[in-house]
Amino acid sequence: MHIFAIANQKGGVGKTTTSVNLAAALALRGQRTLLVDLDPQGNATMGSGVDKSDLPRSVYQLLVGLATLPEARLRADAAGYDVLPTNRDLAGAEIELVELERRELRLKEALADHAGDYDFVLIDCPPSLSLLTLNGLCAAHGVIIPMQCEYFALEGLSDLVNTIKKVHANLNRDLKIIGLLRVMYDPRSTLSTQVSAQLEQHFGDKVFKTLVPRNVRLAEAPSYGIPGVLFDKTSKGAQAYLNFAAEMIERVQSWKE
Ligand code: ADP
Ligand code: MG
Fold it and tell me: What is the pLDDT of residues 234-251, one digit of tens each?
């Protein structure tokens, strides 16, 4: 079981879109996949076709110790993967968690007993470096960082990289940056191509080969409660995430060799 956190403390950079579409693309490629929604906004839950206003249990109960993974997860039938869903209850968990023992390891421990259930677990993190994100980073083997190729993109990156280094040093020796994923890419924009080239220069093979273009079909899909890769499989956005899934599968296979 490979566990990846999709993280970037900036909002609106494509974390949820990447989580939902990578999960669906991995499932299409035959991988048993779980998507964990760690953002109280519940966008990944809704985008997977699961109604966040009608959850028997959620990741909140799991984190505070009131539910196990089998009790809290749901099958997202249309999407083809399992979801550990969330809703606003999770916003309160931050405060409750502070009081609890091993507060940053709650997600890790909840997943540990079910390592055989999945090939991939993806964790959609909230737009902050909060205790929730920390739970995501402690549970994960690696971090996927979606980013837009715009002028300020690199600025926030160093905070995230430092946080990942600290978590690696103190809490989770397994954690590494798997890669930076360029999203909402516009090949006609000079800035996009310049920042993209800069990223490649700085981070080398930590930059994924796949480029996800700006594509309206990816933005439309959530309102239908279905991942973009299934909503319009022929769209450029869907094709990009299908390629990204293949790239991820190749990566994890290369670790075994
Ligand atoms: P985050 O989870 O980081 O806050 P989202 O995935 O919710 O970011 O994306 C922010 C907004 O951008 C959403 O409205 C989403 O539909 C849109 N979006 C994300 N990726 C793309 C893309 N490749 N093309 C077009 N719109 C996108
Ligand atoms: Mg999000």
Answer: 999 999 999 999 999 999
